[in-house]
Amino acid sequence: MIEVTGLGRVFTKRGRKAKRAQQGGSAAPGSRIVALEGVNLSVPEGETHGILGPNGAGKTTLVKILSTMLLPTSGRARVAGHDVATEADRVRRRIGIVFGGDHGLYTRITARQNLAFWATMYRVDAGVVKRRSQELLERVGLTDRADEPVEGFSRGMRQRLHLARGLIGDPAVLFLDEPTMGMDPLATRDFRDLVHELKAEGRTILITTHDMAEAEALCDRVSLIDHGTVLVTESTATIGRMLSGHDRIDITLREDQAHLLAELAGLSGVERVDKLPEPGTARIHTTSADANPVVLRWLLDAGVDALRTGRPTLEEVYVHLVGNRGLTV
Amino acid sequence: MTAKQVIGQAAFVGFTEFKHVYTLKTWLTGWMLRLVSQVVFFGLVGKMAGDRITAEYVLLGNVVTVMAIEATLVITTAALERFQGTYPMLVASPTNMGLVYLGRGLHWVVAGLGSSALVLALVWGLFRPDWNWRVAVFALPCLALIGISAYAYGAFLAACSLRHHKFRWLYLNFGFTLLMTFCGANVPRSFWPAPIEWFTEFLPLSHGLAAVRTLAAAGPVSEVVGQLALEICVAGLWAVLTLVFFERIAGKGRRDGSLNFTS
Amino acid sequence: MAAAAKVQWNTSIRAPEHMAIVITAPIMSVIFLSIVRYNDRDDLVANAVIGTGLFGIWFVAVDVAGGVIQNERWMSTLDLVLAAPRAFGLVVCGRILPVMLIGAFTLLESWLVATVGFGAHLSVRHPGIALAALLVTLFATACTATMLATFFVISRDTTIYQNALSYPFYILGGVVFPLSALPDWIQPAGRVVFLSWSADLLRDSLSGDEVQDVLPRLGAIAGLGALALLLGIYLIRKAAERARRTGTVSLA
Question: What is the ipTM of this complex?
Answer without folding.
Answer: 0.89
